[in-house]
Amino acid sequence: xxVSDWNEFVAQTDERMAAVRKGIPEVAKGFGxxxxxxxxxxxxxxxxxxxxxxxxxxxxxxxxCLAYHARAAARLGANRDxxxxxxxxxxxxxxxxxxxxxxxxxxxxxGLKDDD
Length: 116
Hints:
Blueprint: H1 6-23, H2 25-39, H3 46-60, H4 63-75, H5 80-112
């Protein structure tokens, strides 16, 4: 799916995820705890972890992952060159489909990097 407005996509996805969280609150709470623990700074800093998550989102072809992790990486100080290198590694690991989703990830980063 090609997203034309990443901010609108995030808003729509937030609404949909709110309905899921309401329907399965314990699962959502557990997932939230997992996400917080997995992205907390440790041997790797939080930005590096978000770049890894973005790469996985590219190779898994997950639009929501692209949006949330591109935005998080930008908020943690990632720059466009870092995103392009993440795309390069993703293409290496995921081939042609990752090239397409890499382009989507770059569009997401460009569309969301100034979003506060």
